[in-house]
Amino acid sequence: MKKSILYSLLGGVAAMAVAGPAAAQTKWMMDVWLPNKHPIKTGLQNKMQTDYNAVTNGRVQIQFPAAKLSASSKQWEAVDSGISDVAVSYIGWYRNRIKLPALAHLPFMVPNAEKASLAIWKTQQKFFNAAGEFKGMKLLAFLTHNGSHIANSKREIKTVADLKGLKIRASAGEATQSLKLLGGNPVTTSGPKIFEFVSKGVVDGLQDGMHAPRAFKIIRFLKHVTKVPGSLGTITFAVFVKQSKWDGISAADRKAIDGVSGEGLSAYGGRAFDDFTNGSFDMMKKAGVSIKDASPKLVSQLKERLQPMRDTWIKAAAAKSVDGNAAIAYYRSQAFN
Fold first, then answer.
1. 33 shares its domain with 177
2. How far apart are CA 329 and CA 316, in angstroms?
3. pLDDT tens digits, 87-110
4. Can you give the CATH number for the domain in which 168 is found?
5. Would 42 be classed as within a structural domain?
6. Same domain, 102 and 240
7. Which structural domain range is residue 161 located in?
8. Within this chain, do residues 101 and 135 fall inside the same structural domain, yes or no?
9. Per the domain annotation, does 331 fall within a domain?
10. Among 34, 136, 238, 313, whose Cα sits 20 to 30 Å from the Cα of 172?
11. Rounded to 5 degrees, what are φ and ψ at 18?
């Protein structure tokens, strides 16, 4: 009896030795700083969590915290310091460092979020990587919303003059710059502050992707939306993991994750934004919000007033040894194909 027990134990030890140790599991913490029903969370972040786990057979897992870890404007710092491992961050918070992907923020450059997200990712690979703007991080994807338009509670925007006197919420960077060029009164806030600023009347409306009225529950405060062909610009979110964390997983897992990131993840995230925004437009129509296309006169005024933005970006690109005109042409060939 004792011998059979001993043989059984020895057999188990031998089997364990043959099988080897269990595969190491890497857990990457990814902060969630937007509402859980926002398309960035439901579309992009949830997709990453599912796909990265699947393609690595559970060896690399993305986890979400129970509560926000860092401010939306501090996602790079959070990853760099180890508070989190992976982030999705608006590049405009780091516009002194990250200038080139802001090409997508220029006016009249966004047919929809899927095409714009994919186009700026491909342009990054072809023209921008050598500039090293994401040094210290492994870039996984880009995501844009489907273009900014103007929504407000006061009046229809028929000409640029109609913006005068309106306090309009805008993201930091190019959106704020464009409103200034149009003679508007921009008020810069982060996305999570939109409801507070609109509901309390701090601002009269916003220049943003039209996902925002739905995502931040402000439809009931709006009366007018003016849609601009190609949009007034977008904002680009970069998805990245700290380079040392990336280097710490196996080559096989890096290859597997690359296979479900990049172009595919950028396009998928963009589609999620498009679907969500289409639903937002439907909800606004049902709520009685007036949605009108910008008149030819307004479009002409916008193009004239906003031309300096393109000139400024081309100059910034040249300072980083990038042919800005060539990059714009390539981006447009990908976005408007």
1. no
2. 16
3. 999 999 999 999 999 999 999 999
4. 3.40.190.170
5. yes
6. yes
7. 148-233+287-335
8. yes
9. yes
10. 136
11. -65, -45
* Same domain as 310, residue 180: yes
- Three-point CA angle 198, 92, 96, nearest 5°: 140
Asked if residue 2 is part of any domain, the answer here is no
Domains in the chain: how many in total?
2
Is there a single domain that holds both residue 90 and residue 179?
Answer: no
Q: Is residue 213 part of a domain?
A: yes
The answer on 159 and 141 residing in a single domain is no
| Structure token digits, residue 179 | 């409103």
Q: What is the pLDDT along the chain (337 residues), one digit of tens a residue?
A: 444 443 443 444 443 333 333 457 999 999 999 989 999 999 999 999 999 999 999 999 999 999 999 999 999 999 999 999 999 999 999 999 999 999 999 999 999 999 999 999 999 999 999 999 999 999 999 999 999 999 999 999 999 999 999 999 998 889 899 999 999 899 998 888 999 999 999 999 999 999 999 999 999 999 999 999 999 999 999 999 999 999 999 999 999 999 999 999 999 999 999 999 999 999 999 999 999 999 999 999 999 999 999 999 999 999 999 999 999 999 999 999 8
**Same domain for 220 and 203:** yes
Is the same domain home to 125 and 55? yes
Residue 78's CB is within 10 A of a number of other CB atoms, namely 20
